[in-house]
Amino acid sequence: MKMSSNTGLIRALVALFVVAALFQGAVAADDQAHLIVHKSVAESQLVIGRNMTIEIMVYNAGENIATGVEINDPGWDSSSFEMLGPSTSAKFASIAPMTKKTHRFVVVPKVTGQFSAGPSLVTYTAAAGHQASGTSNTIPEIPILTPTEAKIEVALKIGSYLTLGFCNSAEEWTKAALITTVLVGLLTVNWIALKGKRAVAEAQRKQAMKSLGINPKDVAEKSVKKKKKK
């Protein structure tokens, strides 16, 4: 019975030690810095030959100050982008808890097409003697336009506002133009037909008056004189 009691006591002590170790590890993790990195493009429209600004925001969501923070954003092909700087990498001495730092650099697209970017890399000291690293989000595909395409896109946006959202693309504008052309054509044909009917009716009226020995000009002059007297 004593052996069984000792075994139970040993098991309880081991379990207590494991729980304490886990709790100490959780507390230690809570005391560390934790950096969240977000990467984005500042401009709403990318155009060949115009500046494109990359923004890398680093936020410390942990409870400890992050020190020795280094950001690197590799993968910029010089044949596709001209680097205006200042640099695709940056260093921050520290980032306090619940605060952020932002690094910006500017490139100029040389070619058109679909632009996308991989993640930025960050390394830092999360706590004394503890190094950490992480990555940002990726940037999904964004079209790089020619200056002409950019003007067309702006015109389409303005047109969308003017048409209350009915025409949002070049295809929709083409359909609208076709419908408008058809309607104008129908209205023109209708106007010509009405004008033709009136001309035929007037000719028939004059012919009838002549057959009765009445001069259409005399009737017209009398009508003008009556209007003047009124």
What does it look like?
With 230 residues, the protein is α+β, with helices and mostly antiparallel strands. It is built from 4 helices and 11 strands; from the N terminus they run αβββββββββββααα. It folds into 2 domains: 34-145, Immunoglobulins (Immunoglobulin-like); 171-223. The protein has helices at residues 2-30, 147-162, 170-211, 216-229, and strands spanning 35-41, 46-47, 52-60, 66-72, 81-85, 89-95, 100-109, 113-117, 121-127, 130-135, 139-145. The longest helix has 42 residues, at 170-211. The radius of gyration is 40 Å and the shape is rod-shaped. The model is unreliable at 18-28 (pLDDT under 50).
Short description:
This protein has 230 residues and is an alpha+beta fold.
Within CATH, the superfamily of the largest domain carries the name: Immunoglobulins
Number of domains: 2
Distance between the termini: 135 Å
Helix tally equals 4
Number of strands: 11
Set out the fold topology:
Elements: H1 2-30, E1 35-41, E2 46-47, E3 52-60, E4 66-72, E5 81-85, E6 89-95, E7 100-109, E8 113-117, E9 121-127, E10 130-135, E11 139-145, H2 147-162, H3 170-211, H4 216-229
Parallel strand pairs: 2-11
Antiparallel strand pairs: 1-3, 3-7, 4-6, 4-9, 5-7, 8-11, 9-10
